[in-house]
Amino acid sequence: MSVITVFSGSFCRENSVIQEVAGSTGYKLVMDKSLVGHAARLSGMDEGKIERAFSATTSVFNKFTHEKERAIAYLRLALAETLSDDNLVVSGFSGQLIPKEVSHVLRVCLIADLKFRIKVAAEEQGLSEKDAVKLIHNEDNDRAAWVNALFGKKDPWAASLYDIVIPMDKKDVAEAAALIIKNLDSDVVKTTESSKKAVEDFLLAAKVEVVLIKEGHSADVSVKDGSVKLSINKHVLMLGRLEEELKSIVSRVPGVKSVDTKVGKGFHKTDVYRKVDLGTPSKVLLVDDEREFVQTLSERLIMREMGSAVTYDGESALELVSKDEPEVMILDLKMPGIDGIETLRRVKQTHPEIEVIILTGHGSEADRKICMDLGAFAYLHKPVDIEVLSDTLKKANEKIQQKKAS
User: Fold this and answer.
1) Cβ atoms 61, 72 nearer than 8 A
2) Same fold yes or no, 3-189 and 194-263
């Protein structure tokens, strides 16, 4: 039997088509939502953070946290475990993660022209033309970014990625479903011993990727008959030492017969390979209107393996908090617009789990008391010794990790 993957533009009758196909074939329907839940159970990550992997927008902290890469690694593992069964309809972004070596997959794309999609948006959600166009544009951006990241193709509907591309403005639901079911009869998409072995290799590759992620490493992983190849795609100062460490980690994974490493296409990029250090905070937001000071402080924290982002006023800080959820804030008191005390108050109201360190050159004892009463983790004065600040950040991170563990 076979697996069907369906990748669709928004408002292209995808739900109706997959329900028709699943009902006619008896295949089990697997949606992104169920795979996100599976990945969350495997990883302990929040479902929202895993689902964000499908978004074109990446957190400003991601180069330090690798949350997107972790989410995708666990999505691969969830999908690989699911593929132990045949007779599946996998609908959404996740199906694109199945490697081409798994040949018993019928890859389907549903797309339509904009006029048709606007009409469906009005019928299904009552959207105006303007709102429909905006939503379709945003969701197409997410799909384009996802496909580009996986395959290096800017067109998410490129015919070379699929076995069938169905124009839903020219086919009704019944015709589209019938076309998909008809193509299931092709010998090309029947399960073979070779394609079963490819699923086993996919599962082992996913397990290896997750083990590396747990150890703070990131590498491209491929597997053939238990032989693992790791591609390192960032500049590394001591490549040999890293290769030996990766081999040591991966060789302990059950089912791995051998491990080889190589440098990948991205090896000579200017960014430096950074192992994730769970002992230091990776999402520190610095909020201070003294631009030269805060930029210098950010660079010094990065040198100490702490990921940081910078905003210059309270309003921008609150906006970033709502989107990217930093772990720790270093906050100045005297700023134009929303001052530090009001920023602290609002952060603690909406995101009480964020630890806030006040760092000010103008605060009074009364200010200190107000800040601590509002829930600040610490109150420090400028100029601050970087070692004192680093130690305070590590203590704040310890508190955060203890809360997560409990």
Assistant:
1) no
2) no
CB 24 within 8 A of CB 13: no
Using CA atoms, how far residue 199 sits from 243, 271, 305, in Å, is 26, 33, 37
C-alpha pair distances (Å), 94 with each of 99, 140, 143, 224, 272: 11, 16, 11, 22, 29
Q: How far apart are CA 312 and CA 303, in angstroms?
A: 21
Residue recorded with tokens 């809360």: 403
Structural contact between residues 356 and 347, judged by C-beta atoms closer than 8 angstroms: yes
3-189 carries CATH number 3.40.50.300: yes
The 10s digit of each residue's pLDDT in 105-119 is 999 999 999 999 999
Single pTM value for the model: 0.85
In 9-94, the DSSP E strands lie at 28-31, 88-91
pLDDT tens digits, residue range 299-356? 998 888 888 999 999 999 999 999 888 999 999 999 989 999 999 999 999 999 999 9
The residue whose two tokens read 């395959």 is: 151
DSSP string, 136-149: HHHHHHHHHHHHHH
Q: Which residues face 229 on adjacent strands?
A: 222, 260
> What is the 8-class DSSP label of residue 112?
-
Write down the number of H helices and E strands in the chain: 15, 13
Q: What is the 3-state secondary structure (H, E, C) of 284-324?
A: EEEECCCHHHHHHHHHHHHHCCCCEEEECCHHHHHHHHHHH
**pLDDT digits 0-9 by tens, 134-161:** 999 999 999 999 999 999 999 999 999 9
The ranges assigned to domains in the chain are 3-189, 194-263, 284-405
Query: For residue 199, how far is the Cα from the chain centroid?
Result: 23
Dmax (CA) for the chain in angstroms is 78
Note whether 309 and 282 are within 8 A (CB). Answer: no
Spatial contact of 340 and 358, defined as CB atoms under 8 Å apart: yes
Q: How far apart are CA 343 and CA 21, in angstroms?
A: 52
CATH topology of domain 284-405: Rossmann fold (3.40.50)
Q: How far apart are CA 87 and CA 76, in angstroms?
A: 19
Classify domain 194-263 at the CATH class level: alpha beta
